[in-house]
Structures are given as C-alpha cells and as structure tokens.
Design goal:
Blueprint: E1 2-6, H1 7-24, E2 27-32, E3 35-40, H2 43-73, H3 79-99
Length: 101
Amino acid sequence: MEKQIGTTYLRQKLTDVIQEIKEEKATYVVETFGRPQVAIVDLEQYHNFLRYQQEREEFFDWMKETAAINAEHNKDLTEAEILTIIEQARQEVWEEQQSQK
C-alpha cells in the first residue's frame, strides 16, 4: 500500500515509518511542498527491483546480440527472399493455431 508523507512529518515519525515499512511492507512517497520526491520501500522490494533491472538489461543485451547475428546471417538476402521467409513463418503459425482449435 502506497502512502504519502511530508518531510516534516517523516522527520518526526521516522522510527514508526521504518517499522511500518519493515513489518507491513508499506511504501511511502516522500513529498516536499506537496510534490513527490522519493519513495521509501522495503529492502526486499528494493532487491527485487535491482534483480529485475539486471535481468532486463541482460535480456536487452541478448536481443542486441541476436539482432546483430541475424543481420550478419541475413545480409545477402534480397527483399523478395525476406518476404518469402516472412510469409512461410506466418503460414506455419496459422497452421499451428488451426491445429490447436
């Protein structure tokens, strides 16, 4: 559950806020003059976020590598050959979908 908290109130209640975040997995958005500035989250959520970022970065690196390999592999294909390959792939997907009905 996300809660908003002002910086002045946070200073006064920091121990209570930390306890709530730790025990109840609460998330606080700290505001200054009514504008959100930062979020305070449970350490487990933070570690999950870091893991997600790492996995996402690795995935996009893999995608870039795969695209480069495919580009090199397909560099000599003509546009007509590429369109033929695309149409064959579409047909295979369509046939597979039809067989599952």
